[in-house]
Design brief:
Number of strands of chain A: 6
Strand order of the largest sheet of chain A: 2-1-3-4-5-6
Shape of chain A: globular
Number of helices of chain B: 2
Strand content of chain A: 15-25%
Shape of chain B: globular
CATH class of chain A: Alpha Beta
CATH architecture of chain A: 3-Layer(aba) Sandwich
Strand content of chain B: under 5%
Helix content of chain B: 25-40%
Radius of gyration of chain A: 17 Å
Distance between the termini of chain B: 32 Å
Helix content of chain A: 40-55%
Radius of gyration of chain B: 12 Å
Order of helices and strands of chain A: HHHHEEHHEHEEHHE
Largest sheet of chain B: none
Order of helices and strands of chain B: HH
Structural class of chain A: alpha+beta
Largest sheet of chain A: 6 strands, mixed
Number of domains of chain B: 1
Number of strands of chain B: 0
CATH topology of chain A: Cytidine Deaminase, domain 2
Structural class of chain B: mainly alpha
Number of domains of chain A: 1
Largest interface: A-B, 36 and 30 residues
Distance between the termini of chain A: 48 Å
Oligomer: heterodimer
Chain lengths: ~210, ~60
């Protein structure tokens, strides 16, 4: 009996009603339009859209994250949609795997074998937050073509990190932006997004 | 009173440390830590903004 309870508890862990997606919106033409100009190749944009929808549906109602790499030249796709479950099965505490995700070994190899600015990285943010400092560091270190954060409330944050990256200034400006995103001051939001580009972070809110 | 020391204490790190900024934050997709600046009020954020703008910038990343 105790064993059954443990299993049920593990299944419940990481589930959170506030992170449920609006399936109607995610399936809408309005949401679809956010993807049509992400790159100059329709084929890649379609792949990104398909992977984004799969990811959001998979992680709806949870605090777990998935990660997808798409090679923008040949269209190859690799995913880690099992990070949390896999880590828990290896004995890692469930509260240590929420709101984070790492690439699989084959994804790491994909990064190693790709030229800079070829890999597009997608991951979800169950709590709808802006890219984190860790996200910026990852994009900079792995030289992604760009990263796409998919929030569970239907926003897309597309960002790239350039050689002009200044970590503390970018982190501080993201903090200010995050506060203003809550209150919806569009003038300030635009100002902080412009400021971020001075610190090496090219951010678009879609 | 808003001072450099008080803000650093509240944040838990030196916000102007460009060479070793928040070393506890990894280089992979980890969103489990909220942006620490979100705990500060507008006056404190303005103080940091002014402080950082008036400091010569080092490109360390």
């Amino acid at each position: 009996m105790g064993g059954v309870n443990v299993i049920i508890e593990k299944q419940r862990y990481g589930r959170n009603k506030s992170t449920q997606i609006n399936k109607t919106y995610i399936g809408s033409a309005e949401y679809r339009r956010k993807f049509i100009n992400l790159t100059d190749r329709e084929y890649i944009n379609n792949k990104i859209y398909i992977e984004a929808k799969k990811m959001l549906i998979h992680r709806s109602g949870t605090e777990y994250e998935d990660l997808v790499f798409i090679n923008a030249e040949n269209g190859k796709v690799l995913r880690n949609n099992n990070y949390a479950e896999s880590a828990i099965s290896f004995g890692i505490n469930a509260d240590e795997v929420i709101q984070k995700v790492m690439p699989t070994e084959s994804m790491k190899n994909m990064l190693l074998n790709a030229e800079p600015n070829i890999i597009i990285a997608l991951h979800n943010h169950p709590n709808n937050s802006l890219p984190s400092l860790a996200d910026l560091r990852s994009a900079y270190k792995h030289k992604y073509k760009f990263s796409l954060v998919l929030t569970h409330n239907g926003k897309l944050f597309k960002f790239a990190v350039t050689d002009k990256f200044i970590e503390n200034l970018a982190d501080f400006t993201l903090g200010r932006l995050e506060k203003n995103m809550l209150y919806g001051d569009s003038e300030k939001i635009t100002g902080y997004i412009n400021e971020l580009s001075e610190y090496g972070v090219i951010l678009e809110v879609l | 009173m808003i001072t450099y020391e008080n803000i650093c204490r509240k944040l838990g790190f030196a916000f102007d440390n460009e060479k070793n900024y928040r070393p506890d934050i990894p280089s992979f997709e980890d969103d489990s830590v909220i942006n620490p600046y979100s705990v500060l009020n507008e006056e404190e954020l303005d103080f940091i903004g002014d402080y950082l703008r008036n400091k010569p910038k080092l490109r360390t990343a």
